[in-house]
From TrEMBL:
It comes from the Bacteria. Gene3D superfamilies: 2-enoyl-CoA Hydratase, Chain A, domain 1, Lyase 2-enoyl-coa Hydratase, Chain A, domain 2. Belongs to the enoyl-CoA hydratase/isomerase family. One of its GO terms (molecular function) is catalytic activity. This is Enoyl-CoA hydratase.
Length: 263
């Protein structure tokens, strides 16, 4: 088994850690497969109420492993070169974006290419003050992937998204916060404790409601108001039937603080 992705679950928090620090957590094929499958495992596990994605060492993730990519180019292996987008990168983006529970990117270092794309697919991006983003795709004459064409314009608008994709550069943490790429920026030494506090808060919350809100916001991005209202109605019915909702209403009547069990 590869140890390029480390998975741990504690108190409802699943932490997925990219663990190729010597390669700046770049994504070779075994890592992509393991990351895809690990994210799906977290998405499907009812005991997991929030997911944290992070990296070890100097980088969060710098995207595709270019050493592997160059080898495939030299071998003229077209199938392996381009099947990775539908087979690996797209499922990763879908799982991060659509799972019915909150997802946090703990951006410990540079997030480039698909690494930036993965961070943008998360609900929260807690960024170390020494980290940054680089939308590196056109720098090597490639288009973009891992859902960034969908997520980035929704974060910062179409015009700015195109500018950053056309002219890739490292966007430091402070500027990332100003642009809306980062949710918050913290001193690097405080990243772990800050993320742990946020994840702990989310893990104690109404998980089904969080998932419903997440899916409603995503749905509304590509549907009409009327369609979105209908989707909202379905999600209200779903959450209205949960144990958490009934307990919360009872707690409100009793003037007590509710406890959420995520079901």
């Amino acid at each position: 088994m590869s140890d390029s992705v480390v998975y741990a679950v504690s108190d409802g928090v699943a932490t997925i850690t990219l663990n190729r620090p010597d390669a700046m957590n770049s994504l070779d094929t075994p890592t992509k497969v393991l990351l895809r499958d690990t994210i799906q495992t977290a998405a499907d596990d009812p005991a997991v109420r929030v997911v944290v994605l992070t990296g070890t060492g100097r980088a969060f993730c710098v995207g595709q492993d270019l050493k592997e990519h160059i080898g495939l180019l030299q071998a003229n292996d077209e199938a392996a070169l381009w099947s990775t987008v539908p087979d690996h990168y797209a499922p990763i983006a879908l799982a991060l974006t659509e799972m019915p529970k909150p997802v946090i990117a703990a951006v410990n270092g540079v997030a480039a290419g698909a690494g930036a794309s993965m961070a943008f697919a998360c609900d929260f991006r807690v960024v170390a003050d020494t980290a940054g983003f680089n939308l590196a795709f056109t720098g090597i004459a490639l288009s973009c992937d891992t859902g960034i064409s969908w997520t980035l314009p929704r974060l910062i608008g179409r015009a700015k998204a195109l500018e950053l994709l056309y002219f890739p550069r490292t966007i430091p943490a402070a500027e990332s916060l100003d642009l809306g790429l980062a949710t918050s920026v913290v001193p690097a030494l405080e990243l772990e404790t800050t993320v742990a506090a946020l994840a702990g808060k989310l893990a104690k919350g109404p998980t089904v409601a969080y998932g419903a809100v997440r899916q409603s916001v995503n749905y509304s991005a590509t549907h009409t108001l009327a369609e979105s209202l209908a989707f909202e109605a379905g999600q209200m019915q779903l959450t209205g039937g949960t144990e958490d909702h009934h307990n919360a209403v009872a707690s409100f009547v009793a003037k007590e603080k509710p406890t959420f069990n995520g079901r």
